[in-house]
Amino acid sequence: MAQKDLYLPFLALSIIACCLMNLQTVLSSSSRMRNSTDDISDDKCPPQPHPLGMCRSRVAAYGYPCEEYHVTTEDGYILSLKRIPYGLSGATEMTRTPVLLFHGLLVDGFCWVLSTPKQSLGFILADGGFDVWIANSRGTESSRRHTTLSPQDPAFWDWTWDQLADYDLPAVLEFVYNRTGGMKVHYVGHSLGTLIILAAFSENRLTDIVRSAALLCPIAYLNSMESRLILLATRIFLAETIHMLGYHEFNPVGPVAKEVLGKVCVDPEVDCYDLFSAVAGPDCCLNTSTTCIFLQHGPQSSSIKNMIHMSQLVRKETIRKYDYGSEKENTKRYNQTRPPTYNLSSIPSHVPLFLTHGGQDFLGDVADTRHLLRTLLSQHDSDDIEVLYMPDYAHGDFIMGYNAPQLIYKPMVEFFKRH
């Protein structure tokens, strides 16, 4: 057995002991921690969950029609699905191709309407002649219901992005497909929203109802990630430790997140004065008002188990289903000792793909994205795949950048219209 493998159990036990005896001391004594927490819940931009929801508080406020549906997944989660059926020009007789927007990790569908109609992708697509549908994955504010469970039940949070790919994604895509009379759906995913569609495609699922897919900051391979904060949390098995302490929900503005930051922000190599940059890279093109709206409405819960699964991706060079940590448990669930891999080279070549990534993105960093691109480009015809590289963009610029409408959304819409 390798020396590092012998070391890990002792490291985990040390972390658990430290968490149990000393987390609150870390939280109260670290000025760097206080500054990082202020970044998440700044007094200037306090969290403001709106009781009216996204449709009435945001979309209708700009004069757009907005409909809300509830979709029940095969495993019982009740998801909120929003629809902007047309833009400010009003309903016409023209046929509108449906587009489904799927958000990334720790946010919800609100991210697609954060800014003004001229800046936000949800509005831009509606005004551009598309029938826009906005997904909200399990655990987010508007999708915290289940047929038998409540968010207070640990079982409610017993899932990872495997289940988003297996249940949430097909449930909303098939709903949109059926509701629009069997029209194939354009798909737009950001960050984790790209990983789940790639996972589904690699198993040859949903390709019959997806017209094309646009991947903003595609996330797949993560072993070359540049975020020191995430690398440190992954290296010390922090998500696993928090889960062992009995936590199941990860709320980015809740006490669990503060405990996580309390452990990593004492490391001098981790810059917690600017959490956006520390996690996702230095964004080039955000304005203050949009960032403030994001801080007020954006941060959303995920499961601790999902954070563990993401950590596993960072440690490995392959993309696998969730690893239960023992051959026995893996065999019980997968009928094999190691979790199955998602073979991205098996993604059907007939699905048109638009991919765009940034040179400053710490999450979907250049090395990992190029690994993904080499896999996809070798299979696809050049007419059915388009890659747009933005050297100055980081992770958040693709959904909040003031120049994203011209640099990202315009060529993406043109790609949709060609397919």
Structure description:
With 419 residues, the protein is of the alpha/beta class. The protein has two domains: 3-47 and 224-280 and 301-334, no CATH class; 53-223 and 355-418, Alpha/Beta hydrolase fold, catalytic domain (Rossmann fold, 3-Layer(aba) Sandwich), CATH 3.40.50. The protein is built from 16 helices and eleven strands. It has helices at residues 3-29, 31-40, 53-59, 121-127, 161-179, 192-202, 228-235, 238-244, 255-264, 275-280, 288-297, 304-315, 327-334, 366-377, 397-400, 404-418; strands spanning 67-72, 77-84, 98-102, 131-135, 145-146, 185-190, 210-216, 249-250, 302-303, 353-358, 385-390. Strands 1, 2, 3, 4, 5, 6, 7, 10 and 11 form a nine-stranded mixed beta sheet that branches. The chain has a two-stranded antiparallel sheet with strand order 8-9. The chain is globular and about 55 Å long. It starts with a helix and ends with a helix. The relative contact order is 0.14. Mean pLDDT is 87; it is low at 1-42. One of its GO terms (molecular function) is lipase activity. Residues 1-28 form the signal peptide. One of its GO terms (biological process) is lipid metabolic process. It comes from Zea mays (Maize).
Topology of this protein?
Layout: H1 3-29, H2 31-40, H3 53-59, E1 67-72, E2 77-84, E3 98-102, H4 121-127, E4 131-135, E5 145-146, H5 161-179, E6 185-190, H6 192-202, E7 210-216, H7 228-235, H8 238-244, E8 249-250, H9 255-264, H10 275-280, H11 288-297, E9 302-303, H12 304-315, H13 327-334, E10 353-358, H14 366-377, E11 385-390, H15 397-400, H16 404-418
Parallel strand pairs: 3-4, 3-6, 6-7, 7-10, 10-11
Antiparallel strand pairs: 1-2, 2-4, 2-5, 8-9
Helix pairs in contact: 1-8, 1-9, 5-6, 7-12, 8-12
